[in-house]
Amino acid sequence: MIAGLLTDFEKGKMTRRQLIQSLALAAAAAPAATVVAQTASTIPPAAGPAPFKTVWLDHISYAVTDYRKSTAFYRDLMGWEIKNDDGKQQCTMKIGDIGEIIIRNRLEPAAASGQNAAPVTGVINHVSYGISPWDTDKVKAELEKRGLNPRPDMVGQGFKSFHVKDPDGWDLQISNQTREHHEGS
Hints:
Elements lengths: L1 H9 L5 H24 L13 E12 L2 H12 L2 E5 L4 E6 L3 E7 L3 H4 L10 E10 L3 H10 L5 E2 L8 E5 L5 E5 L10
Parallel strand pairs: 1-4, 5-8
Antiparallel strand pairs: 1-5, 2-3, 3-4, 6-7, 7-8
Helix pairs in contact: 1-2
């Protein structure tokens, strides 16, 4: 379902606002969908439950053509609060008490090499979920045990996370951020 939503967004069939609303609805329906899926699923049996649980949507990362323009758009239309603007290429915004979004300029590999590049459109770079309990060594070991090759992304004093790829190659970030423990809040 999520892959279909992202495909529709990439093909211009839905706006970012519609995508975010759809993702939020999908997340809210996940427990019910899991129950249905368990009764008539063709998904391989579980390899074993992870020793942690998702408890927080840490952030969504947008790669855009002009981070300033996109930041102003979401601030003005959606009421998102600017938390941190690096003044160069990215801004972090608070989405109420739900989580955060990072809006950053998208770097085009072809443009960087001097080739003619196709027009840039906005994409979602990755989604970050907070989990609990967090123990950096145990989380890393669990991800490695599952063959996910975790890439550490430790920013600031309290933020700890790893990036992994999902089966379709999407960048998934797993962090120590929760509603109760959220760096900068």
